[in-house]
Design goal:
alpha+beta, 5 strands, five-stranded mixed β-sheet, Plasmid stabilization protein, RelE/ParE_toxin_dom_sf
């Protein structure tokens, strides 16, 4: 699966790893899991509702998530953040 990154995702990602380099490793590992098996229960993959009905989410840590949309070429990561930041 090809993954593309939006500019808003990149900005948020840089903020998330700035103070915590170990978090970058965790994020990379979970993205690898997502690429090989998006339905792995460890990711808690789910589709959002209401105004974000085309957006999906998966968990990286207890309170860290990636939001993405499906595009013809693969998936586009649109945001990364805590539950309160992304929902």
């Amino acid at each position: 699966m090809r993954i593309f990154l939006s500019s808003s995702y990149i900005r948020a990602y840089k903020r998330k790893i700035r103070k915590n380099s170990q978090r970058a490793v965790t994020i990379k590992e979970k993205i690898k899991v997502f690429q090989t098996n998006p339905t792995n229960p460890i990711l808690s993959l789910h589709k959002l509702k209401d105004e974000k009905q085309d957006v999906w989410s998966f968990s990286l840590e207890r309170n860290l998530r990636i939001l993405f949309v499906h595009i013809p070429e693969g998936v586009l990561f649109i945001h990364i953040g805590t539950h309160d930041e992304v929902y």
